[in-house]
Design a protein that fits this description.
The chain is an alpha/beta fold. It is about 45% helix and about 15% strand. The protein is built from six helices and five strands, in the order βαβαβαβαβαα. A five-stranded parallel β-sheet has the order 2-1-3-5-4, sandwiched between helices. The radius of gyration is 14 Å and the shape is globular. The model has no long low-confidence stretch (mean pLDDT about 95).
């Protein structure tokens, strides 16, 4: 499994910690940046990461910024992306199980590393349940001209 990573400067340190954590678990990672704690714009890294997931170059992604909101909004501009902002393990599990979230988003300034590990584990351990949820997921993309 290959995971796309993206963050802004506010989440750079957490991104590096979580990336190493999942690599220890045996996942392959592709880091779309940022590559330093210097001020930057999350969209510059979110869009390439989203495209990699949409194009099946990566299986899913983990992204983060200070609050998680900006990078989540950017990711969700892509029709094939379902990015879920999670700060509790239960939210992360449900995002996968019910929403087939293909991006986990963490609020770097509002989550401790130990809690982030738990959220990531819950996300990685969960899988989409399908069934009634699949019908709902199919309605998310906007049809042009609708």
């Amino acid at each position: 499994m290959k995971i796309a990573f993206a963050s802004d400067h506010a989440a750079f340190d957490l991104k590096e910690i979580i990336k190493a954590y999942v690599e220890k678990k045996g996942y392959e990672t592709v880091d779309f940046g940022t590559y330093s704690p210097e001020s930057c714009d999350y969209a510059d890294y979110a869009h390439p990461a989203a495209l990699a997931v949409e194009n099946h170059e990566c299986d899913f992604g983990i992204a983060m910024c200070g609050s998680g909101n900006g990078i989540q909004m950017t990711l969700n501009k892509h029709q094939g992306i379902r990015a879920a902002l999670c700060w509790l393990p239960e939210l992360a599990a449900l995002a996968r199980q019910h929403n087939d979230a293909n991006f986990l988003v963490l609020p770097a300034r509002f989550i401790a590393v130990e809690d982030a590990y738990k959220v990531v584990d819950a996300y990685l351990d969960a899988s989409f349940e399908g069934g009634r949820h699949a019908k709902r997921i199919a309605k998310i993309p906007v049809e042009h001209g609708a």
